[in-house]
């Protein structure tokens, strides 16, 4: 199974400003079927708190900063995202939460499937049991 990892994106620096981009199956290892974004998060709030059975994600801090906390069923990993020229690849079956949103932060999330409630595992203990084949 693919591992979570930070992926650097192309970055064109210019006197007129900077530009970055993402191509499916090139910079990220999946085809993009859906994009959503999380914004105007009140201080101290957390998002996520679930895993996906099949969906993969790529998360970019387009503006501001936040932490993505992943759990693979054994250990927890924390990634601080605060630049728009890299992002975090999250494979399927990872518990993930997003927290520590800065004021005006904008989290862009690309994923390889349509929204489907049946894709979600929302109970951590169920996720861990599933990971360990119980
Ligand atoms: P939710 O899963 O609670 O967000 P988060 O995982 O960030 O805490 O989603 C909030 C609401 O938005 C929920 O009613 C489902 C809906 N939603 C969609 O309709 N389409 C989507 O692509 C996403 C991500 C959520």
Automatic annotation (TrEMBL):
Bilayer-crossing regions: none
Residues of the Sugar 3,4-ketoisomerase QdtA cupin domain: 5-131
UniProt-recorded name of the protein: WxcM-like domain-containing protein
Gene source species: Mucilaginibacter rubeus
Taxonomy of the source species: Bacteria, Pseudomonadati, Bacteroidota, Sphingobacteriia, Sphingobacteriales
């Amino acid at each position: 199974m693919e591992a979570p990892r930070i992926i650097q994106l192309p970055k064109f620096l210019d006197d007129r400003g900077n530009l970055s981009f993402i191509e499916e199956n090139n910079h990220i290892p999946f085809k993009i079927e859906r994009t959503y974004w999380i914004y105007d998060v009140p201080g101290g709030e957390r998002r996520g708190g679930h895993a996906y059975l099949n969906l993969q994600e790529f998360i970019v801090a387009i503006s501001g900063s936040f932490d993505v906390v992943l759990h693979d069923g054994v250990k927890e990993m924390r990634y601080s995202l605060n630049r728009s020229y890299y992002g975090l690849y999250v494979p399927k079956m990872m518990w993930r939460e997003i927290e520590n949103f800065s004021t005006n932060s904008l989290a862009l999330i690309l994923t390889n499937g349509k929204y489907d409630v049946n894709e979600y595992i929302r109970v951590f203990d169920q996720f861990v049991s599933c990971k360990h084949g119980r």
